Amino acid sequence: MERKKKYELHATKQIASSFLKDSKKELRKMNSTISSSLLRVAHNAATVGRRSSVVPRRTFTTPSKSTSELKGWRRYKEAFKDKPASYTTTFLVLHELTAIVPFPIIYYGIKASGYTIPVPQDVVAEGNRFINKVRVRYGYDPLDLNNPTMVNLTATYAIVKLLMPARIAASAFLTPTVVERLVAPIVRTMTTAVKAFRKKPVP
Q1: 178 Cβ contact list (under 8 Å, min separation 6)
Q2: DSSP state, residue 69
Q3: Per-residue pLDDT reduced to its tens digit, 9-56
Q4: For residue 145, which of 39, 68, 89, 125 is within the disulfide window of CB 3.0 to 4.6 Å?
């Protein structure tokens, strides 16, 4: 049994050593092959680099047009790029003005027409009771329970909200004109005044 074990151990060692020898030979072959391939690639690249001439890349630039030369929506697009803060602020202010200005016009138009908005009378009376508490608290006379003021105000608010698409379109249409004819001159004047004030020598 011991001889058999020794024989098997010896055979295993021989197999392992032969495997290691073969592996080392294969690794040497692979290294030599990779090295020769890399040298060949480097040589070819150097040869091509010497033969090839570098052609400078030509860049073509289109002349930029001034805002005054553009037409249609492109003109306003370029103007917005130049003055984004002025255009955005002006649009927001005009959007609020298109809500504030029509409000009294619509309200007094409904009131002057004498049109009664079809709302149940008990709902009107309940709403007026709630509003009367607020009015009395701040020193105002209470409304009559049948007074249609609050109903007319609610209807006016709803109409203004329904007109939002038209208000946005009007604000967008008026913004370029207001910026170029009103806001831009004011900004230029203020900028010039600030620069002159900064350059003024301190006594």
Answers
A1: 90, 94
A2: G
A3: 555 555 655 555 665 666 566 556 666 655 665 666 556 555 544 444
A4: 125
Indicate the burial class of 163 (C-beta count within 10 angstroms; 0-12, 13-18, 19 or more).
middle
The Cα 190–Cα 203 span in angstroms is: 23
CA pseudo-torsion sign 121, 124, 130, 136 = negative
Contact between 149 and 143 under an 8 Å Cβ cutoff? The reply is: yes
**pTM, full prediction:** 0.56
| Closest listed residue to residue 178, CA positions, set 98, 89, 102 | 89
Q: Are 142 and 88 in contact (CB under 8 A)?
A: no
User: How far is it, in rounded angstroms, from Cα 128 to Cα 122?
Assistant: 10
Kindly report the number of other CB atoms within 10 A of residue 166's CB atom: 11
Name which of 152, 142, 145 is nearest 118 in CA terms: 152
CB atoms within 10 A of CB 184: 16
Tens-digit pLDDT profile for residues 102-149: 999 999 999 999 888 888 989 899 999 999 999 999 998 998 988 999
